[in-house]
Amino acid sequence: MDAARADASDRAVEADELERLRQALEDERQRSLRLLADFDNFRRRGARENEAARGDARRAALLPLLPVLDTLERALAAGSMDADFYEGVAATRRLFESALREAGAEPVEAVGQPFDPNLHEAIGTVPSDEVEPGIVVREVRRGWRLPDGLLRPAQVLVAKGEEPGRPWR
Amino acid sequence: MDAARADASDRAVEADELERLRQALEDERQRSLRLLADFDNFRRRGARENEAARGDARRAALLPLLPVLDTLERALAAGSMDADFYEGVAATRRLFESALREAGAEPVEAVGQPFDPNLHEAIGTVPSDEVEPGIVVREVRRGWRLPDGLLRPAQVLVAKGEEPGRPWR
Questions:
Q1: Which of A56, A57, A85 sits opposite B75 (nearest CB)?
Q2: Sequence-distant (≥ 6) Cβ neighbours of residue B2 within 8 angstroms
Q3: In this complex, do A96 and B68 lie within 8 Å of one another by their Cβ atoms?
Q4: A25: which of B7, B91, B106, B153 lies 20 to 30 Å off by Cα?
Q5: How far apart are CA A69 and CA A76, in angstroms?
Q6: What is the pTM of this model?
Q7: Residue B72 with chain A: CB contacts under 8 Å
Q8: What is the pLDDT of residues B34-56, one digit of tens each?
Q9: Strands B154-160 and B120-127: what pairing?
Q10: Residue B167 has pLDDT above 70, yes or no
């Protein structure tokens, strides 16, 4: 009778142990699954962040160079009586543009296009009889875009209608 | 006796089940540990790759722009009789340099430095009585470096000794 009781007690301990192990195994499996899911998310986010880091670095490298091209263009616009020197500088400007394109940048289309707040920054309006209201009539500063977004907007003047109440006043 | 045998058989099954569960739990724990370690490695590698992607993008953006500055410098070196235009272009050149510095690039020190194959590319040697052999005496094309490495080497002329057998001939 004592032996039987001890036996029953052993079996209860074993049943507890079985239950504990089953629970622990289930917990551990859930933990692995969560880890796998986290890992997968992290991998996907990592690839996206890598792309974003690339884009940021290119943007940060190119942005300070755009005013240099602006200055060069202003110098050329002023003209020179030294034709040889002028031609050398004009060649540099063309090279500058190709280098920016090689680095992935493209000028934003502006004059003749409908004003687009995603690409253009309106710094004024111009009355015009010839051009539809809302069309860009002059580019004051060139805009540049990258494949992954705008580098800087074009600063433009926009045609406004003669009548009051038109969108561009 | 039959009951006792059945009982013994039950207990053997239970013992097997216990053993199987313990093994499965151990396997699952090992699996979690491996996953954690993989995850950790991946995270570390991800951070490094992110830095590398940033560096690559900056390098790719800046490299095509360096010949533009070279051309501008050559135009300026030729001089001009149009002082105003020349000054405008000289200002552009200064702005260009600041923009490159703002983008993280620094010129490589060359003239007066000992030739360093990690920074300089020797395109010739010059006999010199005044300068120690192996010292850079002229920079033909400026070199540029980034915080994470060389952008392009300086192209230089290096002093060679008058006697034969010196390292720079």
A1: A85
A2: none
A3: yes
A4: B7
A5: 10
A6: 0.78
A7: 72, 89, 92
A8: 989 998 998 899 889 999 999 99
A9: parallel
A10: no
